[in-house]
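Subject: mismatched residue count in predicted assembly?

I count 324 residues in my input, but I want to confirm that the predicted structure covers every chain. Input:
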Amino acid sequence: MTIRSVILGAGCYLPSRVVTNDELAKTVDTSNEWILQRTGIRERHIAAPGELTSDLGIKAAQAALAAAKVDAQSIDLIVVATSTPDNTFPASAVTVQAGLGITKGAAFDLQAVCSGFVFGLSTVDALLRAGNFKRALLIGAETFSRILDWTDRTTCVLFGDGAGAVVIEAQDQPGQMTDRGVLTTHLRSDGRHKLKLYVDGGPSSTQTVGHLRMEGKEVFKHAVTMITDVIRDAFAATGYTAQDLDWFVPHQANRRIIDGSVHKLGLDPAKVVITVDKHGNTSAASIPLALCVAIADGRIKQGDLVMFEAMGGGFTWGSALVRM
Ligand code: UT7
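Triage response: the counts match. Full output below for your records.
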């Protein structure tokens, strides 16, 4: 027997305000055609004034607890993956913890930009398998609208706000690749690329929050190679192949990056979950949001083999292979 980290349920929350490409074209020099053709994005959700990352995270967490049919009091670990915390500190995770009425266990934030959910899944998996905790909430929650330069058309059209959460439980499993739970995770970073996608402010450097800056073409150039490499690592570690996957739930940054990765790996396009059209790039929230949508509409079911991948600022990138 071995301990596996099993996803019991997923929940999500999107702010009510939807901003279409046409609406953005009223304030910056862009068009629905350009955004749709280059990225696949049609619209994104934007948080209301005063609606914080922790507010989105709490709502996603409550939905995940309901989906998993477990009580908040049974949670002893909360990890919030975010690059847009409410404050520099305390961690947004402790605000989520308090919002859920939980006073035991541990709560902390994890920052790996768009790879936050995959880095978080690997971290939670390690803590559960080590026996330190029994039942965790992993939340990806972002309000990127707060760090965008709304006059920069090369970045402001790409991102959106939202949160997704999963309840993950330590369970005894037979110790085989047919087990439920996280089967393997692979994390990578390369700080030589740190200025290709960054925020030009912070407590130690400028004492301001700053705005997102990106050399989009440079990020794009590396994305497909990095994503496919780390997915191949997951196949090599488990013996599974592209044909064995039931679903591919990629980070939702750009439809062309997803299509390029799917083509290179020889995946069946019908097995790919796409939400970038509706959500834009919600950074660490994008994978749990996509997972939540595909579980809710009946596509992803218990027992399915699901590959997650993400790539983002740092660069950071990673993959996780999970049996639901
Ligand atoms: O989460 C991970 C992090 N992010 C990503 O993965 C994003 C990676 N990068 C991308 O998705 C793409 O590079 C972008 C969508 C950001 C840009 O697409 P692209 O095909 O690489 O376009 P480009 O940057 O080469 O720009 C082409 C043209 C430029 O005009 P010129 O120089 O050819 O005259 C841009 O100024 O498109 C122009 N442009 C725009 N036009 C209308 C850039 N942004 C816009 C815009 N609307 N919003």
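The chain has a mean pLDDT of 98. Marking this ticket as 'not a bug'.
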